[in-house]
Amino acid sequence: MLRLHDYAGSGNCYKVRLLLAQLDRPYERVPVDIFGGDTLTDDFARLNPARETPVLETDEGPPLPQSNAILVHLAERTDFLPGDPAERAQVLRWLFFEQAEVIPGIAGLRFRLITGRLEPDSRAVKSRRAMGGAALGVLNGHLGEREFLAAERYSVADIGLYAYVHVAHEAGYDLADYPAVQRWIGRVEGTRRHMNDLEPYRPNAWPGAGRSIYG
Amino acid sequence: MLRLHDYAGSGNCYKVRLLLAQLDRPYERVPVDIFGGDTLTDDFARLNPARETPVLETDEGPPLPQSNAILVHLAERTDFLPGDPAERAQVLRWLFFEQAEVIPGIAGLRFRLITGRLEPDSRAVKSRRAMGGAALGVLNGHLGEREFLAAERYSVADIGLYAYVHVAHEAGYDLADYPAVQRWIGRVEGTRRHMNDLEPYRPNAWPGAGRSIYG
Questions:
Q1: One domain for residues B121 and B180
Q2: Taking CA atoms, what residue in A is nearest to B87?
Q3: What is the CATH number of the domain that holds B141?
């Protein structure tokens, strides 16, 4: 049985829940309150010494942290990950792009603005905003010429990128500036069932959330 | 024939050259001068719209950016990537950890300090220093109990992490504070041939390098 250590407000956790729902795979969900200190215990350090969610426990190997590693592992031998080596490489390429370019910009900005950790006009916000905007520009150009990110099909690359990109407005971006991204979000949401069964990940419970200037 | 678009001063490029050397795979190296504007051309945007090195061209698929996606692709069906699904997942876990936790901290700090883009006592340096230190702490704990990062063998996980971790002193870290990491660096450097054939990646040519306070 799969066991997912999961924080409801995290986009990295959301992407794993989304794939599990689309795979129709049952799992035990272990809620982790990251603001309540749940990741600071010795037990949690044994699951993930980096003290982050999500972590997947399986019957086969050691606990598996890192959302995109979990996506690839769960997707092996399913329609969500191509078997062709060159196509698999492109799926991984976009998943690494997500961690390197989308997380520091869009996800980092969204978290800090919603929780009031950064002032909207600070230098740090401007730097993250530029990084996230560049990532959205790259995605917009790439998706202007194809339906999905890699291998001409819906894959874990799309799930991995969708998680934070579809809430980019909460980091102050106007997705109307990235029309190809907006159309791709519609395709991701339209082509697969179960999207509406998922608990949405809204950071209403994040400490300081009331101070946000973004909706 | 493989063709690697490569910037000599980049750790992300270095890791690909290291794997190619250890695999004994011939390739054409295309030097890219990132400070000279080589990544700003339309031709380069077709290779990688994110305008970053490395990019690998192969005979099979589209150009492949993202250093860790390149490592995994080249390592398929070799000793550098296990076939067991749970072991492969752990290799990917550490490669994603590298992009998420090591690059923004150690690599980002090293680049900005060497090129004089950040003052050593600025708030941005302190934030990156803490992030890189946390990553080194995680690695030190993990490597205190095992010889290599994943699957009880030397793999692309070790190559991916080695690239920036072995030059962490250039970002102001003292690796003596992380003795298990230091021993692992010795194992990485000791167990494989070709390490000495590689062009070292020293950022002597980076603009502003003379202003660094770190050796």
A1: yes
A2: A61
A3: 1.20.1050.10
Whether residue B143 is contained in a domain is answered as yes
The mean pLDDT value of chain B amounts to: 90
Considering the domain architecture, whether residues A27 and A92 belong to the same structural domain is answered as no
Any domain includes A213: no
In chain A, how many domains are there? 2
Confidence at residue A210, expressed as pLDDT on a 0 to 100 scale? 47
What domain range includes position B75? Answer: 2-79+198-204
Residues of B near A (CB-CB distance < 8 A)? 49-50, 58, 60-62, 64-70, 72-73, 76, 85-90, 92-93, 95-97, 99-101, 103-104, 124, 134-135, 138, 141-142
Residues B75 and B115 grouped into a single domain: no
Claim to verify: residue A96 and residue A180 sit in the same structural domain: yes
Q: Is residue A214 part of a domain?
A: no
To the nearest whole Å, the CA of A199 is away from the closest chain B CA by: 25
B89 vs A100: CB contact, 8 Å cut-off? no
Mean pLDDT computed over every residue of chain A: 90
pTM, whole model, 2 decimals? 0.93
SS3 A55: strand
pLDDT computed for residue B124 by the predictor: 81
